Amino acid sequence: MNLSRIDLNLLVYLDVLLREKNVTRAAEQLGITQPALSNGLRRLRELFHDPLLVRTSAGMTPTERAAELQPMVRQILSAIEQTVMPTSEFEPEKSQRTFRIMASDYAETTLLAPLVAALRVEAPQICLDVLTPSDVSFHDLEQGKVDMAINRFDRLPQAFYQASLWHDSFSCLLSANNPLSHQFDLDGYLASAHIWVSKTGIGIGRGMSQRDGQRMGWVDEALAELGLQRHIRVFTRHYQVAAYLAAQPDLVATLPSQMAKLFADDPRLCVRKPPFMIIPIELQMAWSPLLQHDGGHAWMRRRIIELARDVVGRH
């Protein structure tokens, strides 16, 4: 195939079509008419000898070939964007940029607090707009409307860039007045009332109940492997709330260790090792390919990764 005969705009069309999965919305984003984009899609189908997007009851669905092409097309376009992007170096001490970061309260409390302290010295005019997982969709992140998402993810779209910030074990937080604090064993753990806390990924959460075995998460999956089950009295999506509730004498919160250690000096609470094995979790940072080569974004990513190492190294 003669590459000089390929219209690179077609790759731009394909990139947006595979993100939007809707010809009308994609045309609006590209600033062209719907007939023009429909004609572009026809040419793309001829170029790749594949329908690429097929109309189904769920809307426009990418074919297997389109799913394979999506990360490659995004990589090609990112390389072109990097080539034509201005080469002026990002100067954090002068920047007045606002970074929008989606973070769970686990990530916000353990990682963003030291980030704010570092920015106060290194980039005093930079502003952080911190969003919760329920405020954001994968589409927002993909479009670059959110700079980065920091959370634990069950899955991430293949097109996203990502970095592992740390792996974390679990600890139990309970009242210093809880009789179990003196002899923290499995029988006592199972006899206690528990606070369930979790919010992975992005998007609106759903209500929970004791019967939601498939969505209970790491702690309850570990117990299920032993043929055991704990009694949950409170379901929450906020780790700090769980930690404060653990001060009550009859409740136990099983939390990621980095979170539990923040309360280690609280005289009302004590931290104990779980009396059974729980698989560690991973805190990840994800961002859009659209921002991969942005100088300011790259600087912020590096600082977050460096601070994550510092947090882990302090304990």
Please tell me about this protein's structure.
Helix 5 links the parallel strand 3 and strand 4. A 5-stranded mixed β-sheet has the order 4-3-5-12-6, covered by helices on one side. 31% of the residues are buried. The model has no long low-confidence stretch (mean pLDDT 87). The chain has helices at residues 9-20, 23-30, 34-48, 64-84, 105-122, 138-142, 186-191, 218-225, 239-245, 257-260, 295-313, and strands spanning 53-56, 59-62, 98-103, 127-131, 148-151, 161-168, 170-175, 193-197, 231-236, 251-256, 269-272, 281-287. The chain is built from 11 helices and 12 strands. The protein has 3 domains: 3-84, Arc Repressor Mutant, subunit A (Orthogonal Bundle), CATH 1.10.10.10; 98-157 and 291-313, 3-Layer(aba) Sandwich (D-Maltodextrin-Binding Protein, domain 2); 170-279, 3-Layer(aba) Sandwich (D-Maltodextrin-Binding Protein, domain 2), CATH 3.40.190. The protein is elongated and about 75 Å long. 39% of the residues lie in helices and 21% in strands. With 315 residues, the protein is α/β, with parallel strands linked by helices.
Distance between the termini: 57 Å
Kindly report the name of the CATH homologous superfamily of the largest domain.
Periplasmic binding protein-like II
- Relative strand content: 15-25%
**CATH domain class name of the largest domain:** Alpha Beta
Helix content: 25-40%
By DSSP, the count of extended strands is 12
Characterize the main sheet: 5 strands, mixed
- CATH architecture level-2 label of the largest domain: 3-Layer(aba) Sandwich
Count of individual domains: 3
Backbone CA Rg:
24 Å
Topology as a string of helices (H) and strands (E) = HHHEEHEHEHEEEHEHEHEHEEH
Overall spatial form = elongated
| Low-confidence blocks of residues | none
- What's the CATH topology label of the largest domain? D-Maltodextrin-Binding Protein, domain 2
Q: If helices are DSSP runs of H or I spanning 4 or more residues, what is the number of helices? A: 11
Report the average pLDDT across residues: 87
Which sequence of strands runs across the widest sheet? 4-3-5-12-6
From the helix content, strand content and strand pairing, which structural class follows? alpha/beta
